[in-house]
């Protein structure tokens, strides 16, 4: 089958050519919807772009570990294939690149899909990201799901869930995640309308900064005189070098300044409120996206902690759970842990105060604390206090 034919089926949602069973199959979602266009329009809003970058970039910067659990506790397994996969998921991306792509895709499209390639021993060898518009999901008569994808080499392929890493936003059917852009279309439409209005106002405005009027409304100068006045005024008063120059008008002329209308000024001011609305969609505190209009020095640190606990942690748990399903498999003693301790430590003084309490109550050792802070283990014979 030609790649062009498969792509046309992606665009139309036609899955008939890929059916493997005589019985009809049920397509879960058309391969391509208008949401692909909507995501590009949404990212033109700086607040949406900042929210997506803040969440995806923050999680991509966190350290990831693979642990093996047993009755005695858990031990790190740095040589596990999944640990190597997290450092280099494929030939084109590093671990942070893949993590950032995955989070950005799920935040914009509601879904992020990567194909899992296995080696001859059944170990995960690579994670290849697939853009969501190039993915179609079909429910087979047996009840199983089939992922039909257009891979990077332009070839159509089909996979079953055990070969797919699928991170999804909140779903309405348990299969397809629904993007927040589609859930809050009117909010984004309002923000876009305000942005488009502001751009149009500056691009197409025909409002001068002022006008020159004649004190004697009955007398009107000839066109040549008007052209000469206009040229002289422009040469002497316009441009940065002539800013704040003193202006003298003769011949019964008077200068009258003009400003923005109250309606236009109100429309521009309304854009500030759209920032808070868009932040609510993604659960990001406004200070995280550089909106400090209602910020103080005392609540900036609290906003960062709130961001880590209420925005990042749910996504971290989803990623860990999806790794447990797709990479490790049911019943595996291994698990993925994304370390968020660096975001939960708080300020410098309170962090070390809490460490002191942890040592006094035998919750942590000095070496464990030094490891968290990035120091080498203490030397033999050193004082065992923090």
Automatic annotation (TrEMBL):
InterPro entries documented for this protein: Phage/GTA_portal, Portal_HK97
Signal peptide boundaries: none
Coiled coil residues, start to end: none
Domain of life where this protein originates: Bacteria
The protein's name: Phage portal protein
